[in-house]
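This section describes the prediction task in plain terms. A model, or a person checking by hand, is given the sequence of a single protein chain and must write out its three-dimensional structure as a string of tokens. No templates, partner chains or ligands are provided. The sample shown here is typical of the held-out split.
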Amino acid sequence: MRIKYLIEKEFKQMFRNNFLPRLIIGFPLMMMLVLPWAANMEIRNINLAVVDNCKNTYSRRLLEKASSSDYFHLVEVASSYEEAMNGVERGNTDIILEIPATFDRDFVKEGNSKVLISVNTVNGTKGSLGSTYLSSIVADFNKEIISESGISGKANIPQVEIIVQNRFNPHMDYKIFMVPALVVMALTMLCGFLPALNIVSEKEKGTIEQINVTPVSKFTFIVAKLIPYWIVGFIVLSLCFLLAWMVYGLTPQGSLLTVYLYALLYVLAMSGFGLVISNYSDTMQQAMFVMYFFMMILMLMSGLFTPLSGMPQWAQNMAMFNPLKYFIQVMRQVYLKGSSITELAPQAIALVSFALFFNGWAILSYRKRG
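The expected answer:
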């Protein structure tokens, strides 16, 4: 019965704080409604400058095709390459497309022509994707002209037709990729940060001494601290599911029960991690700095924004000890692929291990002084 009163105390403390209930509701709303649009690896509105040395029919069509794309914003039609480069130096231009003077003639006589694409790669991602987009537009334009004109040459060479099927995210919508991972981030921040501040706040208020002189065991005390945040975690998770469906039309291809089962393990692991930090911290400020330190590392090495396979091998080895990595994999595979529990067995083993380790550590590191 002692645990019942301890849990009741935790909820009373939570709701006496006017800020916490607002944070519990407002944070997932912000994560789900704002970040999927802001945290987007799609590059648009790339500043394009065109140097048209040909000024004829085909060159004008290519200029119109490039400038009408959603990915590019035509900022300048320069008279020379040097003039366009001045825009790059000023930071006004990202990519230069230079069309040679013999562009139309080469198309008609030889069936092909060349253009120059110069890319500002100070921002490597923007430059790489921008050059890919523009190269695709030029290649598509080339096919259109060959099809319309019946130009000989390379057009008569037999070609292999490639048909690409984008599985699980057919429209390549980056928001569909990000939303399941952002649900994980909402759970992490609320079920990791709040427990980390819990015991520390009692230390600062002095109420921890009253608990220490009671016959409550360390195990009972830690479990009573965890249960409210498990409940909060499931409320936040359900709210995120609702927002994903209402705002993005995104529903899991697999079972919701699978997600809830893995969420139980994940929330248990992260709340235990938060309590470990709380046990070793003496002030709220110290606990917050330590949590920020670990959260930054965990987020960047979780596969949230970039694939883990693109990281160096040493970073991939370090990511094996990151609980975020496993739950993000679960969310994306259940939501997009419809994976089942049996297919996600390695992630279950990892999360169970983290939950046992962190909560065991939290119980052992709590110093109860009577």
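For orientation: Residues 174-205 form the longest helix (32 residues).
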